[in-house]
Structure to design on (149 residues):
């Protein structure tokens, strides 16, 4: 015979999941209606526009570090300026989170470190240098005279 408390917990869990599914269906319907309205406005301005050529963009989840979009790279440069030493992306991320008084969860540090590394890697102004001769690689500011944003 099944335990009544187990059945009760499973029934409650099922009801919650079913409610979440219904909520998501309403969200999907609302977004589809919004998309239809946007398509109609595009067609008003340019009736021959090929809507099928518009590729969907991936939307990212909320940053667990709680750092505003684009701020990680700016704070990383500030940390490098203030430290005056070469730091790994993880060390930079930890110092940025400390500076912003944010929690140092593994997920937050990992995501911010990845963001810092990719942001600094994309810089083409020569302001930062990555030393890959050691593991893990370390970032430092280049000895240049031009201003870093």
């Amino acid at each position: 015979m099944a335990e009544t408390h187990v059945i009760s917990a499973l029934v409650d869990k099922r009801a919650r999941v079913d409610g979440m599914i219904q909520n998501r269906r309403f969200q999907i319907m609302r977004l589809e209606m919004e998309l239809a309205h946007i398509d109609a406005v595009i067609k008003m301005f340019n009736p021959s526009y090929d809507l099928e050529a518009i590729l969907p963009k991936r939307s990212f989840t909320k940053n667990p570090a709680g750092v505003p979009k684009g701020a990680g790279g700016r704070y990383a440069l500030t940390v490098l300026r203030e430290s005056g030493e070469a730091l790994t992306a993880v060390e930079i991320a930890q110092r940025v989170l400390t500076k912003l008084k944010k929690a140092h969860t593994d997920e937050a540090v990992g995501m911010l470190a990845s963001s810092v590394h990719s942001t600094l890697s994309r810089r083409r102004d020569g302001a930062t240098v990555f030393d890959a001769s050691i593991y893990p690689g370390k970032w430092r500011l280049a000895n240049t005279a031009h201003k870093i944003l």
In short: Confidence is low (pLDDT under 50) at residues 144-149. The chain has four helices and two strands.
